[in-house]
Amino acid sequence: MNPRGAWSHRGAWTRRITVISSLSSPVTNRLHLRPAALRSAHASLRGRDSFCYNENARPRAGIIAYRRSAPGETALVFLNFADSPLTMTIPFPTAGTYRELVDDAERVASLALTGATGDPMTVTVPSKYGYVFIGPG
What we know:
The structure is a single chain. The protein is α+β, with helices and mostly antiparallel strands and about 140 residues long. Helix content is about 25%, strand content about 35%. The chain is built from three helices and eight strands. The strands form two sheets. The chain has a six-stranded antiparallel beta sheet.
């Protein structure tokens, strides 16, 4: 306990940082640390407005997608929990270009999808991986 009578979480944070740094690898950085940085940089990933694409998802197969929004920005998150790549199609929520940001720094060319509102957006997600596309709101 600290002098004010509240519990201190310093020990837990120290252990968490130690675990993260001991697991440090390119994959760990992409799947754990980079999404945290994306949340900090993009209001849509912190926004409370969300929508799960239940009709398009195949949770038993292992793929889901959801949308989070903030004024002027939309995030589309695709998650694949399966042992093989899976493809999912959802409608573009708003017209424009959506750029994938999890692996953007490692790509030679950006992965971007452009479409009109309601057009099909088809994404193939690698096994046990996820994509975060950011576009207009």
